[in-house]
Amino acid sequence: MFTRSPVGEPMPLEPLKNADVSPSKPPQPRSGSTEPGKSVISNDLKILGQDLKIISRGTLQVDGEIEGDVAGAEIIIGEEGKVTGTVAAERVIVRGRTSGVIRAMTVALQASARVEGDIHHMSLAIEQGAQFDGRCRRFSSPEELQIDLEAHG
Question: Would you state the pLDDT for residue 147?
Fold first, then answer.
């Protein structure tokens, strides 16, 4: 079945024929980047956990389901997205469902939004058709609102 070659050296490899060997640009590392990017939790993901906290330095779009707290510079909950827990950010846009407290400088509930819970904000916009069941409290300064992303991490 297996045979040993009499010489102790391996056989040389032949180059692949018809192979595309065009030089490619190496990927740029993101670790040194000062610009925060956009992260997406896709609609095929469901993230569950006790004391779960998801923190993004940039924009986080949630199209899947999260049971836990979410924090970031900007949080967008897509039409198929669902968050059960606290949402804390500078800016929150809700198109899907949330159940829990929203703390943000600017909150926008779009027509497809279904929000159950309190909203702590400095600016709140609610489109016609959005459903909101809870209390909203407007703060006059960011210090009162206390959006501390590190406290959520």
Answer: 61
Computed over its alpha carbons, how large is the radius of gyration of the chain?
24
What's the gap between Cα 14 and its chain centre?
Answer: 46
Evaluate if pTM is beyond 0.85: no
Write out the two tokens for 46.
């469901």
In order along the chain (153 residues), what is the average pLDDT of each group of 10 residues?
A: 54 54 48 70 91 92 96 96 96 97 96 97 96 93 65 44
Residue 67 · residue 87 · CB < 8 Å:
no
Cα separation, 138 vs 145, in Å, equals: 8
Half-sphere exposure of 71 (CA within 13 A, CB side): 14
Residue found under tokens 């040194």:
32
**What is the separation, in whole angstroms, between the first and last Cα of the chain?**
59
| Phi, psi of 149, rounded to the nearest 5 degrees | -65, -30
**CB-count exposure of residue 23 (10 Å: 0-12, 13-18, 19+):** exposed
Residue among 107, 113, 110, 112 at smallest CA distance from 136: 107
